[in-house]
Amino acid sequence: MALEPDIQPLGAHRCLLGESPLWHPTEQCLYAVDIPGRQVLRWREGADMPDMWPQDAEPGCIAARAGGGLLVARRDGLWALDTSTGAQHLVSAPPYDPARLRFNDGKVDPAGRLWVGSISDAREPEAALYRFDGGAFAAQVPGLTTSNGLAWSPDGRRMHWSDTKAHRIYVADFDVATGTLSSPRVCAEFKPRTPGEAYGGRPDGAAMDAEGHYWAAMFEGGCVLRIAPGGDVVRRIDLPVTCPTMPTFGGADGRTLFVTTAREKRPAEELAREPLAGAVLQLRVDVPGLPATLTQA
Ligand SMILES: O=C1O[C@H](CS(=O)(=O)O)[C@@H](O)[C@H](O)[C@H]1O
Q: Which cofactor is essential here (predicted)?
């Protein structure tokens, strides 16, 4: 049985809604976004405060580009950010009505393709998970409400995603060569809020470890869960915040788990109890994570 790890904030910065933590595999530093705070953030080794790139629209997620810099999926489309100059340009318009939806969680598949899902402002099942094919976004999974939790198995043959509002994590067979998924099925399911019962939270962002276990942040559940390929929860790490949003693995050995968290729209009593709400949390784990793939897009 693993001991409960020491959990520390990454510096003094607090996000409104931190998301998309990304350990950059060549720069060896952590990036993330603050969605309503409209910032892309970067923590360099030893820095207490992050570097920040303000955004004109909410950034849902980021990806590291093979040629340098980042892709930023914002409500108003996909943007390229040159992190050395701060210059940005539009790469692709959004594949949805930005008056009702925005981009949310996104990741790069084992072949370097970017996948990004959307979220419905009204939390209706009108969102989708998209694959970016260089020029445009093609919907691969329609009918979602809050597309989230993307992660691939170590062999690349299974793709996972979640729908936070549906309280479900899904898995499908994945063809790395063509970027197509087949046989989608429910991998794990959590109980929706039920009057009179303790609520365990809903699956938000995720990361995959080298043993093929899926780590899910449980929004309003105050923990991260390690889930075996068959869907069984094999470890739960309680966090000092109610709303973790997404884990990622990083550090020189890939064994530091960074977890973004939220404080936006949380009750005042909860925020008074949870001074780390909005921080990026960091803790050490036994099994390293899979490194992020650079996108060719
Ligand atoms: O905006 C967001 O909110 C959701 C939390 S909720 O279920 O809608 O309350 C979170 O999962 C998502 O990642 C985030 O971007």
A: Zn(2+)
